[in-house]
Amino acid sequence: MSTRKNKFSKKDKIYMSLALSLASARHGLTGQNPSVGCVIVKNNEIISIGQTGYNGRPHAEYNAIRNSNEILEDSTMYVTLEPCNHYGQTPPCTKEIIKNKIKKIIYSIEDIDKKVKGKSFKILKSKKIIVKKGLLNEEIINFYEPYFFNRKNKMPFVTGKIAVSKNNLVYSKGTKRITNIHSDKFTHFLRYKNDSLMISYKTLNEDNPKLNCRLKGMHKFSPKRIILDKNLEMKTGSYIFKTVNKDNTIIFYKKADKKKILIFKTKGIQLIKSSLLKNGNFDIKLILKKLYSLGCRNLLVEGGNDLSKSIIKKKLFNQFYLFKSPKNLSKLVDYKDFTCFKDLSLKYKSINKINTQLGKDSITLYKK
Description:
Blueprint: H1 10-25, E1 37-42, E2 45-51, H2 60-67, E3 76-81, H3 93-99, E4 104-109, H4 119-126, E5 130-133, H5 137-143, H6 145-153, E6 157-164, E7 169-172, H7 181-193, E8 196-200, H8 201-207, E9 224-228, H9 239-242, E10 249-253, H10 258-267, E11 270-273, H11 284-293, E12 298-301, H12 305-313, E13 319-324, E14 335-337, H13 341-347, E15 349-354, E16 362-367
């Protein structure tokens, strides 16, 4: 395709930006499928939009076609990712595009899936449909970083998060909250955008957390709870234990007595026996591989100092949010320091600081 044909207008960029916004709104909520946005335009007017459905189906293109009240013949479709061309649980999007006589398809990047990559381009061109690609390439490649990582590594995209005081404490007896309510809302947003959340049994027993998303109207998007608990020492009086259902809690363990195993299984917890490393800690990479096989694609780790440090050292976080409060905590009673700064700065790059502008906490994002 010539350079001239690959040029895009300002309107093209506007329509693809809208498609990216639609995809972004569903990020983390589309199960094992990537989140895709789609916009259909005819006579310089938007006539329909679509997003990947919750849990991954239907696809964005199918939804945009079905959402339209107008005839789609001679229209242009803008889509963030190459349309699918194979039969799965739903018919291929290319078939729907051809059937509805859409005149032009503009998609940003090729799918990494070998069943799709480059094939849709050929199929659509063979039906005399105009096909262009590469629009907003850089922004959309960045957006699909977690999806590409999933496919290439067969592991979830891992986000770390920890909150520390001005004097670098993660815990001080008698202090329940380190950061302010605005930072707390950002934490819940991260929970909303990740399908699973991992902590250790120590954090669970000390803090008795809920690990759910408490943004208004978003509770149903709370992540699956993943607990690392070598000997099944999780307190049965904890909120997590009391709110177990058959789909929302997994515990990785090494050994425990049969009575305790029975209690946990009867409650509905999925127990997975996992090996330990020579230092007595779990093999986190092995656990990540297992979680991927169970459908986990975006994992948030809200561990304490020990779990965070171990994952940072192995560079298994894809990104890490460091929340820092402007207040000091007391060292006069039981307290725990955050000792990961050196490892964090050596292994990761500080990308940017997010300021809530509604409080004095700072949030720094680190990436590989």
